[in-house]
Amino acid sequence: MHYSWHYERTNWPMTSSQKLHGVNLGGWLVLEKWMTPTMFDGNDAIDEYTFMQLADGADRIEHHRKTFITEEDFEWLEKNGINAVRIPVGYWLFDGDTPYTPAIEYLDWAVEMAKKYHLKVLISLHGAPGSQNGSDHSGRVGEALWYSDAKYQQQTIEVLEKIAIRYIVEPTVWGIELLNEPKFDLIQWKLRKFYRQAYKRLTAVSRPGMYIVFHDAFTPRLLSGAIKATKSNPVMMDIHWYHFADWFKQRPIGWYFYKLAHRTRLLGWLQRMQPVIIGEWNLVIADQVMRKYTKEQDDKLIRHHAQLQLDTYTHAAGWFYWTYKTEKRGIWHFRSQVEDGVIKLG
C-alpha cells in the first residue's frame, strides 16, 4: 500500500496558535481508584488489574468506558479553548491480556470525537507490560518488572508500533508518548536505550510529522536530548510538575511561587535540545503548606497558583492539566475549576 504524504514540519519555537492547551483524560481507559472511587465501593480492588478479576468487572468497566467520557465532554473542551487531549492507554489496548480487556474501540471513538471538535490527540502509554513504575496508573500496583525483562520492553515497542500504524493516515493523532512516568534512576541507561529503539521503530511505520514524545522520568536535565530526531518525526520531552512532594512541604509559599516563576529559565535551557511540554500539572499544593491559611486566603492562593503556572508554561510547547474530570469536583477536576472561575483561559 502506498501513501502520498504532504505535511508541514513544525519548527521550534512554535507560534501561539501551534501550542497545545490540553487536558488528560485520566481514569478513563486506565482506571485509578482515587478518581472513580464509587467503582471500587464494596470490593477489595486497588487497580485495574484487580478490578477486572471481580465477577462483574468486565461489565462494569464497559459501562464506565461508555459513560465517563462522552461527546458532550469533547464539545465542552472545544468551547472552552482546549485544543488537545492526552489519552492514557494500557498495553492491553488491542488484544487484552487476562484479566484486562481491549479498549481500542473507545480510543478510535475518541480520535473521531477529537477530529469533529478540532482537538489534537496525544496517545500516552501509561500501562506497560510488567509495569514501568508499580503505580496504579500503570494498571497494576506492585513491582516495576518492566526494567528487568527485555521481552516486556519489546512488547511495549510492538504496541506502540500498532498504535502508529493504526492512525497512520489520521493527522488528528498529533503524537504518541512512549512511556508514562518510568521510575526514577540516577543514570537511566536502560530507559535511554528503550527510547532510542522505540523511536527508530516508530519512525519506520508512523506518519511523517507525527511527534514522538518521551517522559523525563523526573530527571529533565539528565534525559534532555535522549533522542536525536530525524527529519521525519520530531521529538518532544514531557515534564510533569506537581507541587505536593515532601520537599515542598517544608518551604514557605512565597519561596515556591518564586521558584515556579523562574522555571522559565529551565524550560529555555531544556528546549535547546528539543521542545518540551508540561504533560501533567494541576493546582494542588501540599496540605502542610496550605492548612495555615484561611479559606479566603486559600482561594486567592489557588487562583494565583493557576495564573502563575499558565504564565510560566507559555514558555513551553504546551501543557495538559491532570485531569479533565474526576467523580468529585475540585482542584483535580479541570472542568470544575474552569466553570468555577478558578482557571481563566484566553
Task: Tell me about this structure.
- It is built from 13 helices and eight strands.
- It has helices at residues 48-51, 57-67, 71-79, 104-116, 150-166, 189-203, 220-223, 246-249, 253-261, 263-270, 287-290, 295-313, 334-339; strands spanning 20-24, 84-90, 120-127, 173-177, 211-215, 235-243, 276-285, 318-321.
- It has an eight-stranded parallel barrel, surrounded by four helices.
- Strand 3 (120-127), helix 5 and strand 4 form a beta-alpha-beta unit.
- The radius of gyration is 20 Å and the shape is globular.
Tell me the number of strands. Answer: 8
How much of the sequence lies in strands comes to: 15-25%
Number of helices: 13
Q: Radius of gyration, Cα only, in angstroms?
A: 20 Å
Write the element-wise H/E pattern from the N-terminal end onward: EHHHEHEHEHEHEHHHEHHEH
Mean pLDDT: 92
Identify the strand order in the major beta sheet: 1-2-3-4-5-6-7-8
Jot down its keywords.
36% helix; 346 residues; alpha/beta; eight-stranded parallel barrel
Provide the fold topology:
Layout: E1 20-24, H1 48-51, H2 57-67, H3 71-79, E2 84-90, H4 104-116, E3 120-127, H5 150-166, E4 173-177, H6 189-203, E5 211-215, H7 220-223, E6 235-243, H8 246-249, H9 253-261, H10 263-270, E7 276-285, H11 287-290, H12 295-313, E8 318-321, H13 334-339
Parallel strand pairs: 1-2, 1-8, 2-3, 3-4, 4-5, 5-6, 6-7, 7-8
Helix pairs in contact: 5-6
